[in-house]
Write a structure and sequence with these properties.
The complex is a heterodimer of chains A (392) and B (266). Chain A is α+β, with helices and mostly antiparallel strands and 392 residues long. Chain A has 8 helices and 20 strands. Chain A has helices spanning 79-87, 129-139, 144-157, 173-185, 203-220, 231-237, 255-260, 265-270; strands at 34-45, 53-64, 68-72, 94-99, 102-103, 114-117, 191-195, 223-228, 240-245, 248-253, 275-285, 288-293, 297-302, 312-317, 322-325, 333-341, 345-352, 355-362, 377-382, 388-390. Chain A has a 6-stranded mixed beta sheet, with helices on both faces. The longest helix of chain A is centred in the middle third of the chain and has 18 residues, at 203-220. The two termini of chain A are 31 Å apart. Chain B has 2 domains: 2-36, no CATH class; 61-265, MetI-like (MetI-like fold, Orthogonal Bundle), CATH 1.10.3720. Chain B starts with a helix and ends with a helix. The chains are: A alpha+beta (392), B mainly alpha (266). Chain A binds chain B through residues 21, 87-89, 108-110, 114-116, 118, 120, 122-126, 135-136, 139-140, 169, 183-184, 187, and chain B through 163, 165-166, 168-176, 179-180, 183-184, 187-188, 266.
Chain lengths: 392, 266
């Protein structure tokens, strides 16, 4: 898998619409080419009316071929709008949208080499599973024999052979999900768009489908663009994740980048859990700086960008990287206000001056880890490199 | 909560009796009409034994047959044309919400609430003003117009209950708007279309007031003919025609209702 954050964009292949969306046999797409690219994308709903709403604000994004790419953000952040623009269901207000080099900004959905798995699946209720899967191929005017062959292959791919002649309304959510996938994959699109396809399933099935989706993506070699508000889902499946909030692209990177190196308060808070502490730069020297935290003391942390002494910043630290110890040395201290047993871990709620913090320690009290009760005073330790400095 | 309250209503004394009374009041005249259509005598009030003679008379009467034929032809054409218009109207009002769907809905269904005599007089005045001579054509035009809202309602209901992402899914799978409509939307609308058509057909078949005003001297429909017969005196022949029309209407309403139910379950 390609996991580098930055890479030169080689010239995309000169694939045009004339080369049909499905080229039988050539499932693997040109590695390292750009599958989808949006530049300066803006989307304003109800332009010119008092209810005008800017859903996407100057978004720039490159999605590579063969990538499992996730658009992650809270509901209403614009991630679905971006997906709908890629699919052609929504027209962009300004900017460009390219798919394998071809400008598709003004093309209707039926002219784009892209297929979608809809949130509620949108299976055709008056058709059998087989007819549903064949629909896209038939619309492309594929020969009958090829349609049949592909449908059979898709039925096997999603393990739905025994349901081939049933109608969608007689099937469970998970089965419909598989049919929707098969229907969207059958025409061998250059991009597969998935709009929160797992949100209608129960937890166990959702976890199973995660693995299936991931392996389907590897087997077919098709670029997947997946929309979700579930950060766990995003981290588990994606090659890269784009975090979107309020119409802005916040950060793009591998799941590790996004989790370990958040670049804004929003990302630190939205992905997993974070303690966010306001601090002032006390001293800065090279790649390290000291920060004053009110009622707390001073901490050291590595910095990525230049900071000025006296500048206001935010420090982020994950609950599992905050280490509690008995009070016997100098340094930041806190009082335990609450202790919650979580089965595989114990969570402590702490108060340090005006700051409320959360620490999580795996199976507190066991394996040499000290356990604490509400009211105990504790000293706070930070694992090396665990404090992230955020300027916004 | 509401079902509990409905059940409570039944404990009031006399509730059962009242219900029976209502049903009798509604259906007794129709039942009596149907029974006397099998009367052997000429009276519509005194029973003289069972016979099918009045049905034989009806089927032998050339005028009745002509009138019935007119009625059916007008109803079939009016219902078909009205259904096509209604389909267009339903698609426009359900999908094109930006174009003032609410206003269009009110305008489309308002004729249902206008007193029929007003529509009848308006149609008559219009035809005279424009200079179309009264006859078969004017009946047909008037029927098409007043059938549209009746055909519109079931189609609109069906369209609203349809998953709105289905046409998007068709477009996503490379179907042009026309192909998507023919392969996805239209087949799914069939129950609504049939239901709307049947409703329009019955309304057209039964109409008296508008037809009476816009029919010329030559053209006649079954309801007009029956009214004419009444003026010459009541015989069970009228009962027989009425019973036949009732039977036809009942079957059609039943089909329409069943289709509507099947549609809602979907």
């Amino acid at each position: 898998m390609q996991r580098a954050i930055i890479e030169p964009n080689p010239t995309p292949p000169a694939d045009s619409k004339a080369a049909s969306p499905s080229k039988p046999g050539s499932l693997l797409q040109h590695p390292n080419s750009v599958a989808a690219e949006v530049r300066n994308l803006r989307k304003i709903y109800n332009v010119g009316s008092p209810q005008a709403h800017e859903a996407l604000k100057d978004v720039n994004l490159s999605i590579r071929a063969n990538e499992f790419f996730t658009l992650l953000g809270p509901s209403g952040c614009g991630k679905t709008t971006l997906l709908r623009i890629l699919g052609g269901f929504e027209m962009l207000t300004s900017g460009t949208c390219r798919i394998f080099g071809e400008d598709v900004s003004r093309l209707p959905p039926e002219a784009r080499p892209v297929n979608t798995v809809f949130q509620q699946y949108a299976l055709f209720p008056h058709m059998t599973v087989r007819r549903n899967i064949a629909f896209g191929l038939e619309m492309l005017g594929k020969p009958k024999a090829e349609v049949e062959r592909t449908v059979e292959r898709m039925l096997d791919l999603v393990h739905m052979r025994e349901y081939a002649d049933r109608r969608p309304d007689t099937m469970s959510g998970g089965q419909r999900q598989r049919v929707a996938l098969a229907r969207a994959l059958a025409p061998q699109p250059k991009l597969l768009l998935l709009d929160e396809p797992l949100s209608a399933l129960d937890l166990k099935l959702r976890q199973k489908m995660r693995l299936e989706l991931k392996s389907l993506q590897r087997e077919t070699g098709i670029t997947f663009i997946f929309v979700t508000h579930d950060q766990e889902e995003a981290l588990a499946m994606s090659d890269r994740v784009a975090v979107i909030s309020n119409g802005h692209l916040q950060q793009v990177g591998t799941p590790e980048d996004i989790y370990e190196q958040p670049q804004s308060r929003f990302v630190a808070d939205f992905i997993g859990e974070s303690n966010l502490i306001e601090a002032k730069v006390a001293d800065s020297a090279g790649s390290e700086a000291a920060f004053d935290i009110e009622g707390f003391g001073q901490v050291q942390a590595p910095i990525g960008q230049r900071v000025e002494v006296g500048q206001q910043v935010w420090l982020s630290i994950r609950p599992e990287r905050l280490v509690l110890g008995a009070v016997h040395r100098e340094g930041p201290q806190a009082t335990v206000t609450d202790r919650t047993y979580l089965g595989n871990a114990v969570e402590y709620h702490l108060r340090a001056g005006k700051h409320a913090l959360t620490a999580r320690s795996p199976r507190g009290g066991l394996r040499g880890r000290q356990d604490f009760a509400p009211g105990d005073a504790v000293s706070l330790g930070f694992e090396p490199g665990s404090i992230k400095v955020l300027l916004s | 909560m509401s079902t509990a309250r409905l059940r409570d209503l039944r404990v009031f004394p006399g509730f059962g009796l009242l219900s029976v009374g209502c049903v009798v009041f509604l259906y007794a005249p129709i039942v009596v009409l149907a029974i006397y259509s099998f009367n052997d005598g000429r009276s519509v009030t005194r029973w003289a034994g069972f016979s099918l003679r009045w049905y034989q008379t009806v089927f032998a009467n050339q005028n009745i047959q002509t009138a019935a034929m007119n009625s059916v032809v007008i109803a079939v054409i009016a219902a078909s044309v009205a259904t096509v218009f209604a389909l267009g109207a339903a698609i426009a009002t359900v999908n094109g919400k930006k174009g003032g769907g609410e206003g269009a809905y009110v305008v489309l269904t308002f004729p249902l609430m206008v007193p029929e005599i007003v529509t009848a007089v308006a149609s008559l005045v219009f035809f005279v003003a424009v200079g179309i001579s009264l006859g078969f054509a004017t009946i047909l035009i008037a029927h098409i117009v007043f059938c549209i809202p009746f055909a519109y309602l079931p189609i609109k209901a069906r369209l609203e209950s349809m998953d709105a992402t289905l046409p998007s899914a068709a477009a996503d799978l490379y179907a042009s708007p026309a192909k998507g409509f023919l392969r996805i939307t239209l087949p799914l609308l069939v129950p609504g279309l049939v239901s709307g058509w049947l409703l329009a057909f019955i309304i057209s078949l039964d109409d008296f007031i508008i037809t009476a005003l816009v029919a010329g001297p030559g053209a006649t429909t079954l309801p007009l003919h029956i009214y004419g017969m009444l003026r010459l005196g009541m015989t069970p022949e009228v009962n027989a025609i009425s019973t036949l029309m009732l039977a036809a209407s009942t079957v059609l309403v039943l089909i329409s209702g069943l289709l509507g139910q099947a549609g809602r379950k979907h």
